[in-house]
Write a structure and sequence with these properties.
This protein is an alpha+beta fold. The chain contains 3 helices and 8 strands; from the N terminus they run E-E-E-E-H-E-E-E-E-H-H. The protein has a single domain, classed as Alpha-Beta Complex (Nucleoside Triphosphate Pyrophosphohydrolase).
């Protein structure tokens, strides 16, 4: 199947902000080079977006203490590079169409645990929002640049 005929996978993403307006990022297990990303994942059939957000955030970070402060009005998309087509998501998708949510973390840092049942992250940290486009893999950079603009609108 050619790239053009493959669909986009529907997903959600979480911008988890702490009290200092820094954002949570994790280093992926399957790509442990010095690239980081925010929690994100696919939406199951008939799953509401907000339910997928809650599930993915918990599965990846163990976090339950937060408040949703903003849902982006539009979907953000990215395409996989050629070398990853057919390898990720069993070759079913050419990229993702994501609905992103901005959240305020209200718990203690001890709640955060990336060593979950099916861990996706090796480690995690809080970073300044300005660094987001520089720490993500190249093919998701445009999404993170757009997210940075949205975050700035919310926290300014």
């Amino acid at each position: 199947m050619s790239k053009k005929t493959l669909p986009l996978r529907i997903g959600v993403g979480a911008v988890l902000l702490n009290r200092n307006n820094q954002v949570f990022v994790g280093k992926r297990r399957d790509n442990p080079i010095n690239k980081w990303q925010m929690p994100q994942g696919g939406v199951d059939n008939n799953e509401k977006l907000v339910d997928a957000l809650k599930r993915e955030l918990y599965e990846e970070t163990s976090v339950k203490s937060y408040k949703i402060i903003h849902e982006l009005d539009r979907w953000l998309t990215y395409e996989l590079p050629e070398n990853l087509l057919g390898k990720i998501w069993r070759g079913k998708y050419r990229g993702q169409k994501q609905k992103w949510f901005i959240l305020r973390f209200s718990g203690e840092e001890s709640e955060i645990n990336v060593n979950t049942k099916k861990p996706e992250f090796l480690e995690w940290k809080w970073v300044d929002i300005e660094s987001l486009p520089d720490i993500i893999v190249d093919f998701k950079k445009k999404v993170y640049e757009e997210l940075l603009m949205e975050i700035k609108k919310i926290i300014s």
